[in-house]
Amino acid sequence: MNPLRRGRPDDGGDRRARIVAAATHLFAEHGFDAVSLRQVAREAKVDPALVHHYFDGKDGLFAAAVSLPADPGDLLAGIDSSTADGRGRVVAHAVMSLWEGPQKHVLAAFFRTTIGSTARTRLLREVVRRQIIGKVAAGLPYDDAERELRASLAATQVVGFLVARYLVELEPIAALRQADAEAFLAPAVQRILTGPLPFGGAPGV
């Protein structure tokens, strides 16, 4: 078993890249909560202090491992102050504004490479679960299980719309003006977040 390198690591290879590669593997295999920075250091064969030197805690390392083209916290910054009845409108405007901006091609490339990689898909699932589902669900007038279910269903609505409009470029959805695209997406998301569900609630709850 190779010992951990103490003090100044050797100059062979990119140390930061080794840490990110190790974190990507561990996060994909075990999920965010089950991985510690010390485990990442051991996997990368570096001193744990070096992980802290390059990254601002586990969240910073996770963001580097996923290589997100946009910060979900920034994207949904206004959602905390929105009412439950206005949540669909906020979500639709946030994602449409992002995809209509200068990062459109970067986002499309990110989606395509992520869908083609099992490890990156697992990492993206962790991002959605930790940083998006919770924000969208917060404040909805249901128990925890139903809030999570509704927010997850809303995510499928958003992702499907984005794939049809920007990746598949399905007409006439692809040709819609941004305002019109938001006008179609918002009520669909809102219905899932606050409308009646089949069977009257979350299955098994």
TrEMBL record:
Annotated protein name in UniProt: TetR family transcriptional regulator
Gene3D superfamilies per UniProt: Homeodomain-like, Tetracycline Repressor, domain 2
Pfam family, one: TetR_N
Alphabetic keyword roster: DNA-binding
Recorded GO MF terms: DNA-binding transcription factor activity; transcription cis-regulatory region binding
InterPro entries reported in the protein's UniProt record: Homeodomain-like_sf, HTH-type_TetR-like_transc_reg, HTH_TetR, Tet_transcr_reg_TetR-rel_C_sf, TetR_C_16
Residues of the HTH tetR-type domain: 13-73
Protein's UniProt keywords contain Lyase: no
DNA bind region: 36-55
Biological source species: Sinomonas puerhi
